[in-house]
Amino acid sequence: QAKWNGIPLLLQKLYEHSHPNSDFSQCQSILKEISPLLSMEAMAFVTEDRKAAQESTFPNTYTFDLFGGVDVTDLITHHLRLAERNDFVLFLFTLMTNKKTFLQTATLIEDILGVKKEMIQLDDIPNLASLVSSFDQQQLANFCRILAVTISELDTGSDDKHTLLAKNAQQKKNLGPSRAEINQATLLNIPGFIERLCKLATRKVSETTGTSSFLQELEEWYTWLDNALVLDALMRVANEEAEQSSTGIWLSSDESGLANTSTRTQLPQSMKIMHEIMYKLEVLYVLCVLLMGRQRNQVHKMIAEFKLIPGLNNLFDKLIWRKHSASALVLHGHNQNCDCSPDITLKIQFLRLLQSFSDHHENKYLLLNSQELNELSAISHKANIPEVDAVVNTDRSLVCDGKRGLLTRLLQVMKKEPAESSFRFWQARAVESFLRGTTSYADQMFLLKRGLLEHILYCIVDSECKSRDVLQSYFDLLGELMKFNIDAFKRFNKYINTDEKFQVFLNQINSSLVDSNMLVRCITLSLDRFENQSDAKVAEVLSECRLLSYMSQMSMRMSFLFRLINIIHVQTLTQENVSCLNTSLVILMLARRKEKLPFYLRTLQQMEYTEKYPGFILNNFHSLLRFWQQHYLNKDKDSTCLENSSCISFTYWKETVSILLSPDRTSPCAIVSYIDEAYMDIDRDFSEE
Question: pLDDT (tens digit, 9 = 90+) per residue, 372-391?
């Protein structure tokens, strides 16, 4: 009669399900029933000057309040707020010592950390070292899921997309290490932690101890993957294998240490493999984050000592890059190349680890075996150049064993990868990081002899790759592979042997200079070095190579310079496109060496007038260079990357920028001398907006 629309009964149910041990999903479904009754009135309430809820105008809201709805929802919110209480989260960690509740506790902690606004500090967990040492390897792998959250910066997902202005402003605010960095240091101080992770990452499937029953394993899978369809998929795989095996794959009597072994069941092999893949995923992620952190050198030393790289090399064919079996587990009906299948994710995580491992670090030579290291030495001797110190100093007892090292195995699968594969990006990044740093002729030749250059050109030109990410990674790799290497340019010319092919190559470069500018920089630097050499072989390649002839034209260099400056602005600079600014500087530094800087600036001015927009390029360039000074002259910035990649001293970089920014309008090398006063627009300050 009172037209309460069932609200009191719903509230009674809600109250019954709002205690700490209740099933909050029940609360959710009840709230779904109540909310439509209130939402229409809420709209009216907001639009009618927020009058108090009265029985006549807002009957449902009034009823909700009358029967204690506000108090009940407060109660539920209180329980959900537990997530923000650190003492509660730290208490949960102590529950992990109980084997029976370990999985449920780990899952709850992971969920809580997912919604927590502030990162917990691992230091605060009571007896962390003894807690970790009490875990068996299976629990440690699960624990890595939690650790992954605590050691990752909260907002790294779109790192390349954040503007450098915003990042620099944030760095000024953040004095001292972040919580994630402190947590990384805490982990490294746990005795034996890295060693156990390396063992987990490199153990073979046959080494996994089969001490848990099939049902326990299934429960773990179910908790892990949080997806009801997983059980169906697992059962399908299991049934397939059971049918294939006449001896009955489910019954096993070799589970050591278990009572009543004859009735125990065991997981079929493909599930064991998937299980191991899931574990390795978590472990490799943690190792990867630590390799990119502040304690990088310490981590490098440890993972070299514990033979992570040779261990992964031995797993490469059978587990990491294994052939998909007919019954390979794929979740929720996606195909086998779906990015969320564990197989795919493991491959990407493995490639990311290789990239972090070899990037600007001399331990990268552990990716080779002894025979391959000898080959590097032979290349240096033949070319009559000194061997790289890092090759000589590599501890041969820690390198890969077997017929091939990890780097050459990676090259093999890279060449077989289908054109549209999402792995191409990560594979190219991993190989490129091996070449990064000070250019090594022997490293380049090692890869050139294995047909890498022809493979890259095939992908860029013949298959006319369309993916921006893959193209960028291939251009960057090509740049590192060819830089200062006359043999590489000779090979390039042999492959790109028609004007049509060369035009396709140029079209790919010009389609996005943000993606190809590192290659443009490499060609420009190489051309400059070759022109200063008096060697018959170099002179021959210089006269024949389409690419070098193209770049030797002043008009082409000017066109690249004009476009490179035009596509970036201080407000839109990111980690990804700031390379365009550095490439434009390289072109101008080489011009300055030849005393051609005034000519280049005057040509830019003429190009502005041709575009009917005087000042728009040079004003922008002036602002960009002022930002460059702010950004790179910061004491925290590492300038060795700029030096190594260009073979130009950082002092020369700084001097060139200073000369260009000189306020003296009579200086022939100052940008302001080429902007008419009427069009001058260089005094604005940068802001983070």
Answer: 999 999 999 999 999 999 99
Mean pLDDT across the chain, nearest whole number? Answer: 83
* Rounded Cα gap, residues 464 and 76, in angstroms: 57
pTM: 0.80
Identity at 20, one-letter amino acid code: P
Instruction: Decide: 259 and 119 in contact? Cβ < 8 Å.
Output: no
DSSP state of 417: S
Tokens representing 85 are: 């209480």
For residues 375 and 382, give the distance between their C-alpha atoms in angstroms, rounded to a whole number.
Answer: 10
Q: What CA–CA distance (Å, rounded) separates 556 from 554? A: 5
The CA distances from residue 178 to 114, 159, 170, 634, in Å, are 18, 16, 12, 19
Of the CA atoms within 13 Å of residue 511, those in its CB half-sphere come to 17
pLDDT given at position 122? 94
Beta bridge partners, 181, equal: none
Beta bridge partners of 163: 574
At a CB cut-off of 8 Å and minimum separation 6, what does 462 contact? none
Q: How confident is the model at residue 24, as a pLDDT?
A: 61
Q: Is 557 exposed, middle or buried (0-12, 13-18, 19+ CB in 10 A)?
A: buried
The secondary element (H helix, E strand) that includes residue 605 is helix 597-610
Q: What is the DSSP letter of 400?
A: B
- CA 88 to CA 502: how far, in whole Å? 64
> Long-range contacts of range 375-384, CB-CB < 8 Å, 24 or more positions apart?
375/446, 376/442, 376/443, 376/446, 377/442, 379/441, 379/442, 379/445, 379/446, 380/441, 380/442, 383/441, 383/442, 383/445
* 292-342 pLDDT per residue, tens: 999 999 999 999 999 999 999 999 988 888 765 433 344 434 444 445 577
Asked if 83 contacts 116 with a C-beta cutoff of 8 angstroms, the reply is yes
Residue 22 bridge partners (DSSP) = none
Could you report how far apart the first and last alpha carbons of the chain are, in Å? 58
For residues 206 and 319, give the distance between their C-alpha atoms in angstroms, rounded to a whole number: 11
Q: What is the pLDDT of residue 51?
A: 46
Tally: H helices and E strands in the chain: 35, 0
Cβ 469 vs Cβ 498: under 8 Å: no
pLDDT band at 275 (very low <50, low <70, confident <90, very high): confident
**Long-range CB contact pairs, 15-22, < 8 A, 24+:** 15/68, 15/72, 15/75, 18/72, 18/75, 18/76, 18/79, 20/79
Average pLDDT of the residues in 77-86: 65
Phi, psi of 322 (to 5 degrees): -70, 155
| Residues 476 and 427: beta-carbon distance below 8 Å | no
In angstroms, the CA 442 to CA 373 distance is 10
Distance CA 159, CA 242 (A): 47
